[in-house]
Amino acid sequence: MSDTARNRNTWMTGTPRRAVLGGAAAAAAGFALAGCGSDDDGGGEPKDRKKGEKITLTFWSWVPGIDKPVALWNSKNPEVRVKVEKVSAVDGAQYAKMHAAIKAGNPPDLGQIEYPVVPSFLVDNGLLDLTKYGVAEHKDMFIGWQWQQSAFGKAVYAVPQASGPMGLFIRQDLFDKWGIEPPTTWDEYEAAATAIRKRGAWIETFSATNGNRFAGLAWQAGARWFGTEGDTWTVSIDDEPTRKVADYWYDLARRKLIKTIPDRQNAWYKDVQTGSIASWLGASWGDALLVGNAPKTAGKWRVVPMPQWKKGDASYANWGGSTTAVFAKTKYPKDALAFAIWLNTDPESIKLLIENGYGTPGAKQGYTTSQLDVHKDFFGGQAYSKVFDEASKGVDTSWKWGPATDTLYQRLGDAFTAAIGDGSDFRSVLKKVQGETIADLKEKGLKVKAG
Amino acid sequence: MRRVSKAPRRFTRTEARSARAASGFLLPFLALFLLCFIAPIAYALYESLLKVERTGPLGLGGETKQVWAGLSNYAHALEDDRFTAGFGRVLLFGAVQIPLMIAFATALALLLDAASARWVGFFRTAFFLPYGVPGVIASILWGFLYVPGISPLVEMADSMGWDVDFLGRGAVLWSIANIVTWQFTGYNMLVLIAQLKAVPGELYEAARIDGANAWQVARHIKLPLIRPALVLTTVFSLIGTLQLFAEPKVLKPLSNSIDSGYTPNLAAYNEAFTSNNQHIAAAEAVLLALVACVLSFGFLRLVGRRGKDGDNG
């Protein structure tokens, strides 16, 4: 539950049902809080810090334990103090807050923004193009495709923090007990699903509202949902590779070989704890999630690579991952950038971030893969981060996100919800979302065409 | 504010002075009313008539301008079948849940009013208690009772061989109706009891002398006399139903059957805070308010007319 929703909720339903226009008033109050939508973008040029001047930068983030590396920075850089403000990452609340702050003209200096969401802030003119401040000289310190995620044209808008290369978490003990080999291809995965179903358990759930994971599956199959041609966005969600993925999962769902409950929710956790669901297509940050929510299954899990469409391929995908972005209104762009680079490349900082579980670093050096095996015991001593490290190398780097990803996820969620509800095939979902996404971008005043 | 006098005559001096004094007392209220009520509505209306125009390569880092949109946001909202489906859903919800809840609240109120003095206070409080639980918390509580694998209710049904899915496509709306009924029945009951308390005792005495039994007293004296309270609670419930938000919002992650436009309010919220289209959201909020307005006044006129045909209600 996001804070915004909670506050608005007390307006709307937490009071005796008073006024006919309460809804409008409350909704309007929500906007009123978002300021009066001033249209100037920044105005005065940011100034440089005078030598010896003490400043404070605010940083909105939700990474667990982010305050530790920040405290380290503050002890080393007394002149540039960074103040962390925790924001809620439930249901996109943090982005609602950032967008509202941009509208109101008082955003923080820095913010944590996930790769897929970066473009939606560019549409708002919310982020600073860092090329003016020498971001390019740090380019080689980061993994190429992650750098590209926030580079548009010649401009670079954010510093990579971490990614979430995908892998398959399996209950090795159950697979062994049932004599099932971990699947290496999607055909084998289907066979495994059938075999596990015969034992009364399930291999996986296909969650309707999990647009980001579905995007990862399409990404792996070679889809390219968004692209640009000149000044026009191209949208191709209903393309062949995505159709292949949609057909595959529709088939599994239709034959009841998988569940269709939402994942990472109570019912799913219960299934994972009891072994009723025996595997999870997750990402590198998922280790902490399993450790935290199914502690009694310790030692029984392993990580294997994501199944492939063709045997012997090594095509992988990414689910999640964040950047450290600098907001356009900051007074001290140079210092903000310096902090963002330090946070994500300094070995000590990375060490602290890894210990608290933030995904797979976006930096090329400053850590070893074995450092990432934080929960080795839970995975029976397996050096499981190697699997994610390999996956990271096999992520096709030409994937781009569009300018309204939050809306896209919502559209996918709604369409999958409807399809699972009435049993229609998943191709209809793609067709619907393709049309809706083009309309959504037009609505935002952008040039767009079908790709 | 000027005092409107019925008779066409000039104010006397004292009257003029007292009118000035009255308007002086009204000013603080008016100022607050304008600031907290009229201004947000006016602002929502204004926002709903604008749209954003973007220039520059790909719309990234270019100019953004707010331009006049006329009614295009309203057209967009009304063409969005998710939004209109949400309206259909809350109207269906209201048609079933409101009569049930009001009937239930009336029955409880009459029972407690007729009961002998013992325990009445306790039961009144017990029925009213759920209203003290915020909607969000209530939804989380009930959510635990609905989610398979955790809910004892689902487990019990399972052991009897019933396959229940409270969060399934057909059931989830009624699961929400159950939460709302649980929350507001007691509150509505209390409003009705308050009006029952105001019924003069002589009426009951007269009824007893005429030989009326308890049932006849309830039917012919109490029910007609608490009519205004029944109308009031129904109108409140109608408006509340149109504004359904917290329950679907909380249950959404738990269920694969709630979409982002499940109720009009949820649609407006998601338009504003997920998609960052505040102009469309404003239009949706204004539409919602209009529908609430029309339905409430429509209902009031309907019962008002009926009241005049019957007794002098």
From TrEMBL, chain A:
Protein name per its UniProtKB record? Sugar ABC transporter substrate-binding protein
Q: Which Gene3D superfamilies match?
A: Periplasmic binding protein-like II (3.40.190.10)
PROSITE patterns (alphabetical)? TAT
**The organism's lineage?**
Bacteria, Bacillati, Actinomycetota, Actinomycetes, Kitasatosporales
Q: Which keywords does this Swiss-Prot/TrEMBL entry list?
A: Cell membrane, Lipoprotein, Membrane, Palmitate, Signal
Q: What superkingdom heads the lineage?
A: Bacteria
Family annotation (Pfam families): SBP_bac_1
- Give the range the annotation lists for the signal sequence: 1-34
UniProtKB/TrEMBL annotation, chain B:
Under SUPFAM superfamilies, the record lists: MetI-like
> What keywords would UniProt list here?
Cell membrane, Membrane, Transmembrane, Transmembrane helix, Transport
User: Which CDD domains does this one have?
Assistant: TM_PBP2
Transmembrane as a keyword of this entry, yes or no, is yes
GO CC entries: plasma membrane
What membrane topology does this protein have?
Multi-pass membrane protein
Q: Where is the ABC transmembrane type-1 domain?
A: 87-299
What subcellular locations does the record give?
Cell membrane
Q: What is the superkingdom listed in this entry's lineage?
A: Bacteria
Q: Which residues form a coiled coil?
A: none
* GO terms, biological process: transmembrane transport
Entry's transmembrane regions: 21-46, 90-114, 126-146, 166-187, 229-246, 280-300
The answer to keyword Membrane applying to this record is yes
InterPro entries the record matches: MetI-like (IPR000515), MetI-like_sf (IPR035906), UgpAE/MalFG_permease (IPR050809)
* Signal peptide start and end residues: none
Instruction: Give the record's family classification.
Output: Belongs to the binding-protein-dependent transport system permease family.
Q: What is this protein called?
A: Sugar ABC transporter permease
Please report the organism this UniProt entry assigns to the protein. Streptomyces antimycoticus
